[in-house]
Design brief:
Blueprint (H helix, E strand, L loop, with lengths): L1 E7 L2 E10 L2 E11 L3 E9 L2 E9 L3 H4 L1 H25 L4 H13 L3 H14 L4 H15 L2 H16 L10 H14 L3 H14 L4 H9 L16 H12 L4
Helix pairs in contact: 3-4, 4-5, 5-6, 5-7, 6-7, 7-8, 8-9
């Protein structure tokens, strides 16, 4: 662990790089002034903020410079301890996080799902499944379309390089999230393309089929001159799908 104390003008910053289970975090504590003085400590992972503490305090003129710097140092160490304990306390596996995030999304609790994604990214920052959820939720929840799509694409690329979790999810998972991210961005044609690509890996996947229907791209019924929901069309559709004819 490397700790640096920096002086910028009349302000002091504390900066530390720590490694926890091979994952490097950059932690910075600095004084900030607005109407009232306060101290902020921020933890970064690959340039992304993962934790933040902001505390109001008395000014240096009121408590003295040494005492003020001691407050900064104490809060800086609290942030370091917080990051370390996040790793030590976790008992969840990658699959546990993936299942939990998926369950929250199905319940339409997207903000809770993203909070869980952030916790998971602290422990498993390179997991492509968690990364894919992160990209999808950033696009849908925060309207960070370009960033979300880029993260989803990286997740798919990383998965194709060989990262798998006991077959829990397959390729269709990544194409589904990419389709959702593109749809959130208003790029319907791209969404259709990725959903169709996902169906190549799992042609009976209910979520992909549901999304394709939502996009207005349902396949024609086997017998077009009778109702789509008739028993005959349902049976023939199922039969043709199993035979690979649809």
């Amino acid at each position: 662990m490397k700790k640096i104390r920096l002086k910028t003008g009349k302000r002091f910053d504390y900066s530390t790089t720590i490694s926890v289970k091979g994952i490097n975090y950059f932690i910075q504590t600095e004084e900030a002034t607005s109407r009232y003085p306060f101290i902020t400590s921020t933890a970064y992972l690959e340039g992304r903020i993962v934790e933040k503490i902001k505390s109001a305090c008395l000014s240096k003129d009121s408590i003295g410079e040494n005492e003020f710097h001691e407050l900064m140092h104490r809060q800086h160490n609290e942030m370091i301890k917080m990051i370390q304990e996040k790793h030590l306390e976790t008992k969840r596996s990658e699959s546990d996080y993936i299942k939990g995030i998926g369950t929250l999304i199905k319940k339409n609790r997207l903000k809770d799902a993203y909070d869980l994604v952030e916790d998971a990214m602290l422990i498993f920052p390179d997991d492509p499944f968690i990364m894919s959820y992160c990209g999808y939720l950033r696009a849908v929840l925060f309207k960070q379309y370009n960033n979300g799509i880029a993260i989803c694409k990286k997740a798919l690329s990383d998965f194709k390089k060989g990262h798998k979790i006991s077959g829990y999810y397959f390729e269709h998972f990544f194409y589904l999230n990419l389709g959702k991210a593109y749809l959130a961005a208003g790029k319907k044609n791209m969404a259709i393309q990725y959903v169709r690509n996902g169906l190549k890996y799992d042609k009976n996947n209910k979520e992909l089929i549901k999304m394709l229907i939502r996009l207005g791209m349902r396949k024609k019924p086997p017998i077009p001159f009778i109702r789509r929901d008739s028993i005959v069309n349902k049976y023939l559709g199922l039969l043709f799908s199993k035979a690979g004819l649809r």
